[in-house]
Design brief:
The strands form two sheets. Strands 3-2-1-4-5-6-7 form a seven-stranded parallel sheet, with helices on both faces. The protein is α/β, with parallel strands linked by helices. Helix 12 links the parallel strand 12 and strand 13. The chain has two domains: 182 residues, 3-Layer(aba) Sandwich (Rossmann fold), CATH 3.40.50; 169 residues, Rossmann fold, CATH 3.40.50.2000. It is 44% helix and 16% strand. The chain has 15 helices and 13 strands. The chain starts with a strand and ends with a helix.
Length: 370
């Protein structure tokens, strides 16, 4: 197959969806398929693609439709003899999907890790002519299937894959860059600094920890539009010595290996890669019971669940875990075993390959250029 992964996300943005693209594209390339990444020039995604020797096709549009971009895609599809495209954002489906439909004999797939489609006619129109949607959680499939727009096989659940290999590139030594006391407990979180990730509730938990005299250090790895707002909250609560936002970190593994526990306080998720990364490395986890997180964590067995938007609950769960180190260790062991068995990179890539081969075959047999 000749496959183009498309993601027109901002050039400085990097998250689970972008990481999925690189991991899956690299796996398919290793299996002999011709792979390219459609992304913005000088983006983090372009940089990562080059690191894995993946070809890139540079794109640039911020609107829901662009005749010039449709034409540019059309020319690329004809020249490269593309057989399948995987679109990340709705605008990618509208623009690249139309070009693929005009070119003909190209399977058009949407890939969504969080809910990007709402039960409105404009979305129904956009997704009417594509060949399928891949998501990574059953909760999202249930929502999409409830719209009644397609048959039960249109949305397929293929879980993210995670590697057990520890990436120590660009290693960060927390004890060298931060004023961490010797016996402090290190609580790590990571993700785009947006409302979705719920970091304000982690700050609330840190304020309670300070009030109760806990020797805890809260660390967040990530960049985003709420950075200034979150830092203002940290200063307002006088948490400068116990809550740090590090910014974008190229490899999270070294931070995870130096942490006592990982917390993901999201308001909604797909199947969060950062949670999988923590679990596969044997780091205990606390998360909110949203979407993929609730499918991944069995409360009290492979991790701990806390209510959404509840800083006090996060604080209390941290306190409970630290008071029971053996129980915390056992949950981490169970989590690592679970992720190793059901969320391997090879299994995910094999399922994606089979799915795309079937969709490409069906498209060639049934479709003609418009």
């Amino acid at each position: 197959m000749t496959i183009l992964f498309i993601n027109s996300i901002g050039k400085n943005k990097w998250g689970g969806g972008e990481k999925w693209i690189i991991t899956t594209a690299n796996g398919l390339q290793e299996k002999g398929h011709d792979i390219a990444i459609g992304c913005r020039k000088d983006s983090i995604l372009e940089k990562k693609a080059k690191e894995y020797n993946l070809k890139t096709f540079l794109i640039s549009y911020n609107t829901d439709f662009s005749f010039f971009s449709v034409y540019k895609y059309y020319k690329y599809f004809k020249k490269s003899k593309t057989t399948c495209i995987i679109c990340s954002l709705n605008r990618d489906v509208r623009i690249a999907g139309l070009a693929a439909k005009i070119a003909g004999n190209i399977a058009i797939i949407g890939r969504q890790g969080v809910q990007l489609i709402k039960n409105k006619w404009k979305y129904k129109f956009t997704f009417k002519y594509i060949d399928g949607i891949i998501t990574n959680s059953f909760s999202l499939k249930t929502i999409y299937d409830s719209f009644g727009w397609w048959d039960k096989d249109f949305v397929s659940v293929i879980h993210n894959g995670i590697s057990e290999k520890q990436d120590d590139s660009n290693s960060v030594n927390l004890f060298k860059i931060l004023p961490i006391e010797k016996d402090a407990k290190i609580i790590l979180s990571a993700g785009r600094l947006s409302k979705q990730k719920g970091f304000k509730y982690l700050i609330e938990a840190a304020a309670l920890a300070k009030k109760h005299g806990k020797n805890w250090m809260f660390i967040v790895a990530g960049e985003g539009k709420l950075k200034n707002q979150l830092n203002q909250s940290i200063h307002k609560l006088n948490l400068q010595t116990s809550f740090k936002i590090l910014g974008f970190i190229d490899s999270l593994n070294p931070l995870l290996m130096q942490s006592d526990i990982f917390v993901l306080p999201s308001l909604y998720e797909g199947m969060p890669n950062v949670l999988l990364e923590a679990m596969i490395l044997g780091v205990p986890v606390i998360a909110t019971p949203v979407n993929g997180s609730s499918e991944l964590i069995k409360d009290g067995v492979t991790g701990s669940l806390v209510p959404v938007k509840d800083g006090k609950a996060i604080f209390q769960m941290l306190e409970r875990n630290f008071a029971d180190p053996e129980g915390m260790k056992e949950k981490a062991i169970q989590a690592k075993s679970h992720v190793s068995q059901y969320f391997s990179v090879s299994s995910s890539v094999n399922r994606i390959e089979s799915y795309l081969l079937e969709k490409t075959k069906n498209t060639i047999n049934n479709n003609k250029p418009i």
